[in-house]
Amino acid sequence: MNLRPGHIALYLLALLLGHEPLAARAQSEADKEAEIKAAFMYNFAKFIDWPQWAFSSAAAPLTLCILGDDPVATPLAAMKSKPLPNRTLSVETYSQAPTPGQCQMLFISRSAAPALKSRLANNPPPATVLVGDTQGFASEGGTIEFYLQDNKVRFIINIRAAEHSGVKISSKLLGLATVLDK
Amino acid sequence: MGKPWFPASAALSLCMSLILLSPPLLPPLKAAAAQDRQSVLEMSLEELMNVEVTSVSKKRQKISEAPAAVFVITHEDLRRSGVTSIPDALRMVPGMQVAQVDANKWSVSARGSSGMFSKQLLVLIDGRSVYTPLFSGVFWDVQDLMLEDVDRIEVIRGPGATLWGANAVNGIINIITKDASKTQGLLATAGGGIIEKGFGSVRQGGSLGEQGHYRIYAKYFNRDGFDDGHSDWDALKGGFRADTPLGQSNNLTVQGDMYTGNSDGQATYRSALAPYTSVVDEGSKVGGANLLARWDHQGKQGSSSSLQLYYDFTTRDDDIIIDESRHSFDMDFQHQFEATPAQEIIWGLGYRLTRDEFNNSTQAFLEPDSRSDHLVSAFVQDDISLVANLLKLTLGSKFEWNEYTGFEIQPNLRLLWTPSARQSFWASVARAVRTPSRAEDSGSIIQSSSLVPTGPPPAPSLPLLVYIEGGSSYKSEELIAYELGHRIRPTDSLTLDSALFYFDYDNLRSVSDPTAPTPVPGIPPYLSLSLPLENGGKGHSYGYELAAEYQMQPWWRFKAAYSYIVESHLDFGTPKHQASLRSSQDLSKTLALDLWLRYAHELRHFSQSIPSYVELDARIGWKPVPGLELSLVGRNLLDPHHPEYEPEFFGAAGEIDRSIYAKVEWQY
After folding, report:
1. What is the largest CA-CA distance in chain B?
2. Which residues of chain A are within 8 Å of residue B190 when distances are taken between CB atoms?
3. Are residues B48 and A153, on separate chains, in Cβ contact within 8 Å?
4. A26 to chain B: closest CA residue
5. Is residue B23's pLDDT more than 80?
6. Rounded to 5 degrees, what are φ and ψ at B78?
7. Do B49 and A7 touch (CB under 8 A)?
8. What are phi and psi for residue B60, nearest 5 degrees?
9. Within the 482-511 window of chain B, which residues sit less than 8 Å (CB to CB) from chain A?
10. What is the CA B431 to chain-centroid distance, rounded?
């Protein structure tokens, strides 16, 4: 073979000089589902009213938290500082349960320990909307549960849990949800 | 050194110019992804309710939970071990015997029956079989991939005949490359050292249309032979892969590769002329191309189906023994569905056409020298949940019709018992066959040449050439395999995976009574004797394998493997004990250290016994800035050189040298 290492080096150099950086990674099907859920959560934040005492001040942002490791974290993080009707949105991730009152919405990933999930559901932190995508989340005390029907993302709202936490859900959101009244 | 198959520099130019041209033609990925994200976030609630997502098939069983002796070599395993070839990576798998013969030849087998021409192992790259029907084995020197883009290698020891077909007798190696969506952007590597004289590769990935992705790559290496450079080899390879969703429930994958190279070695040349048997240098020029397309469909209620077609071309010429070109065309269809809530059925149909052209030499002769073979196959497998989440029975069988032995049936039965989330047991009984190779059916291969007296003195001495003769009456080799396995995760940081097996072989290759020596007039005259091949061999083997993984600290992990095997029949030799211990340490956020200790017991079936050996590989990786990694890899560090194998038929004994290389990897 009469190919010299010099040739290769030249080609590689030419390639690198003429190239545009492509930073972002591509999406897979699981990521697409995560994106839809993140977009829904942004809309939940828009169409749910939290009581004034849920926030430390009038200028405090609405904090959306993720408990555990979940693909939904990436698209949610991209939503940081998106405008809401009255506040800005802030996104935090936690590996342990956050202090009650720190989050207005808390997404509990399927990787979070089941014991933790049921503790949060039985003793929900005040003025916190609990969101999950595991089967039975809403009936066990969560506020909103995502599920798939005909390859489309749908959600269940547990009315009692919402009332208990002190938030008011707009009729627009209730109309699109499967309502659980227990 | 022969002339390359087609001008190598032309191939390199083509690949490189394709890579250079691609960025302006296709939209930058970052913008496309940001645009997708943007559009979803801009949607109203009603619009969001109408977006379709395809749920990832939940029914597909995790390969590591299958009722079989499975080991998965992960991408990280490949990266951190510093291996530059697939056979070297296989050394970390319990139950696999890998012995390097020279710089570009390996003997790879699972659970015994070792041999460079090891005939009972099926090897697939992204669903394409790379096993050659010429001698029922794999030419490992041309199965070179960009290991940076390999997602995993699934190794299943034992018959998996049902899903993968005949010739998956002792095991299956399934090499799976990453989806194009996972190999985006630019990745470039370059390096060199002792033995690894120089290598480089470049890969460019981007989007294809709205939802698809592609990658295109080129790679080159030049490696020194061991032992004064008899087995130098080099190759240039390029290829692509494109993955596109079609609508909501379909996916299309198209991929292809092309390569050209040279693999040198030494061959034993036998003739009727003095010195009758000599070791000569030989240089094989190799080349090939393949194209594969696969359509995957997700149906309702978790069912799925796929259709795959591929074309494969290989050519190899060493001017002495082998001069072969082969075209293969393969079509496979598979469908998986839930027949009842407790039963999942997977069935499939396949067809393969393979056509070869062999130029007969004085060392190897095929009659006919060119042949087209058809293979038709079907399989069905039923996974039955006898007790939900506790006991599962798998019944299956593969049916094949081939041109050498006609109809073959390979049933198997497996049971999986999962008493807890931390532990499972499995058992299996299976029948598998290995159909005859071209050489066994139609070949005449020279085995030895020596001067023999023709009678008491003063009768002259004549050269006697002994040939191993195949024939169309050669049957399939058969295996009945009994296996037991156990997996346990006693703590969150320790996993133990064991397997026990008993293999009962029948109709193994043997040689029957030689014909009387026949005088052949010629210049010079000689005697010719044939050893006809037949299936008179019987034998059995049994053994134990253990794979363990221990996360000692969050930054320090150990992976170990141990195999034990006893064989009743003498074959080309399998070490009784083998062990492997790997340590992976993340010394800091940027520094990684990997050590790999290997042991193989002695081999005593050869003219020279191969002693047992202990060897060590080490790798230091450093990431000074994100996207850049520098690494230094030392292999076979404990001895300046050591033997692992003695090649059969045509090779000459060699030893494996200590080597070291440095590598730069840049991702952008």
Report:
1. 105
2. 8-9, 12
3. yes
4. B181
5. no
6. -65, -45
7. no
8. -65, 120
9. none
10. 22
Interface of B with A in 164-183 (CB under 8 A): 179, 181-182
The larger pLDDT score, comparing residue A99 to residue A17, is at: A99
Helical axes B29-42 vs A29-47, angle rounded to 10°? 40
Higher pLDDT, residue B99 or B605 = B99
Torsion of CA B258, B119, B221, B327, to 10 degrees: -20
Element (H or E) spanning B25, and its range? helix B8-25
Annotate B427-440 with b (16+ C-beta within 10 A) or e (fewer): ebebbbbbbbbbbb
Q: Which two tokens stand for residue B576?
A: 């009784």
Check if B41 contacts A (Cβ < 8 Å): yes
Token pair of B583, please?
């340590």
B561 with B577: CB under 8 angstroms?
no
Looking at residue B120, its amino acid is: Q
Q: Report the residue of B14, B45, B248 to disrupt the A interface, i.e. the one with the largest count of A CBs within 10 Å.
A: B45
Q: Burial letters for B83-113: b for 16+ Cβ neighbours within 10 Å, e otherwise?
A: bbbbbbbbbbbbbbbbbbbbbbbbbbbbbbb
In the three-class reduction of DSSP (H, G, I as helix; E, B as strand; rest coil), residue A106 is classed as: strand
Residue given tokens 């091949």 in the structure block: B533
CB atoms within 10 A of CB A182: 9
Per-residue model confidence (pLDDT) at position B550 = 93
Is the CA virtual torsion B155, B160, B164, B165 positive or negative?
A: positive
Task: Report the 10 Å Cβ neighbour count for A99.
Answer: 9
Name every chain A residue with its beta carbon within 8 A of the beta carbon of B4.
1
pLDDT in tens, B33-86: 444 445 677 788 888 887 766 543 333 345 657 788 989 898 999 999 999 999
**Cβ neighbours of residue B440 under 8 Å, at least 6 residues apart?**
B136, B470, B474, B509, B533
Q: Are B220 and A10 in contact (CB under 8 A)?
A: no
Rounded to an integer, what distance in angstroms lies between the CA atom of residue B254 and that of residue B665? 27
d(CA A137, CA A154): 14
Distance, CA of B72 to CA of B175 (rounded, Å): 10
Chain A residue numbers with beta carbons less than 8 Å from the beta carbon of B1 are 1
Crossing angle of helices A5-17 and B8-25, in 10° steps, is 10
Nearest CA in chain A to B251: A29
Q: Mind telling me how many Å the CA of A154 is from chain B's nearest CA? A: 7
C-alpha A12/C-alpha A28 separation (Å) is: 30
Q: Look up the pTM and report it.
A: 0.73
Residue B39 has a pLDDT of 66
Contact between residue B435 and residue B476 where contact means Cβ atoms under 8 Å apart: yes
Instruction: Please report, as a single letter, which amino acid is at residue B267.
Output: A
Q: Is A103 exposed, middle or buried (0-12, 13-18, 19+ CB in 10 A)?
A: buried
DSSP string, B324-338: EEEEEEEEEEEEEEE
Between the CA of residue B312 and those of B139, B237, B306, B437, B562, what are the distances in Å? Answer: 14, 15, 20, 18, 36
Closest CA to B659 of B264, B107, B226: B226
As a three-state string, the secondary structure of B76-125 is HHHHHHCCCCHHHHHCCCCCEEEEEEECCEEEEEECCCCCCCCCCEEEEE
